[in-house]
């Protein structure tokens, strides 16, 4: 977890380390947050559908994903 380079949110990095396919759910307390998949340069690739402050990620073996959480104005 780290502050985004542009200062507008928080970057979370997830990775699958066991060599299998996995689906995980992440949840946070602040529900006034948008989540998006970003690349390593923190450019948005795909918004994540979130519900009740949670989102799901599905991983291929050894895949790394970065998610940006940004406050909703």
Automatic annotation (TrEMBL):
Entries under SUPFAM superfamilies matching the protein: Galactose mutarotase-like (SSF74650)
Gene Ontology process terms (BP): carbohydrate metabolic process
Domain of life: Bacteria
Glycosyl hydrolases family 38 C-terminal domain segment(s): 1-66
MF terms (GO), sorted A to Z: alpha-mannosidase activity; carbohydrate binding
One Pfam entry name: Glyco_hydro38C2
InterPro entries hit by this protein: Gal_mutarotase_sf_dom, GH38_C
Top EC class, one word: hydrolase
Catalytic activity, EC: 3.2.1.24
Keyword set, alphabetical order: Glycosidase, Hydrolase
Name assigned to this protein: Glycoside hydrolase family protein
Source organism: Paenibacillus illinoisensis
């Amino acid at each position: 977890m780290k502050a985004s380079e542009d200062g507008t949110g928080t970057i979370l990095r997830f990775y699958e380390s066991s060599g299998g396919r996995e689906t995980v759910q992440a949840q946070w307390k602040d529900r006034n947050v948008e989540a998006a998949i970003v690349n390593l340069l923190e450019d948005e690739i795909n918004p994540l559908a979130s519900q009740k402050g949670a989102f799901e990620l599905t991983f291929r073996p050894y895949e790394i994903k970065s998610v940006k959480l940004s406050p909703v104005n």
